[in-house]
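One such shown below:

_____
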Amino acid sequence: MFYLILALIALGCIAAATGYFRKTGTSEAQELPGACCGQHEICERDSLLAAVSRKTAYYDDDELDRFRGINPDAYDNEAVNEFRDVLYTLREAEVAGWLRSLQLRNIELPDGLKDEAFLIVGERRE
């Protein structure tokens, strides 16, 4: 009888430790309510993280590939306008995917457009 009680206590301790480590070992994205886990098509569509999807999509913006590796503050006005033209021809639902595509292609969004793009994405999430 003593060994049975000792075994139950040991199992309880193991279960408690496992539960604790599962809870503290999860990523921040999983702990936040309503946050995207990256495993659903809707989350992937709205996520700005390049790690969510490795699939590079083009949004009729092949010409932007020539800006690969350029610093975001090094663009001239003509280049910024090219990015702006693409941004404002996209549907609202496509902006997050486009930004993720730029990340995957190593293309930096011009500094002057970042606020506008993130505002569009943020309004869509609300």
Summary: The chain has two domains: 1-34, 36-125. The radius of gyration is 23 Å.
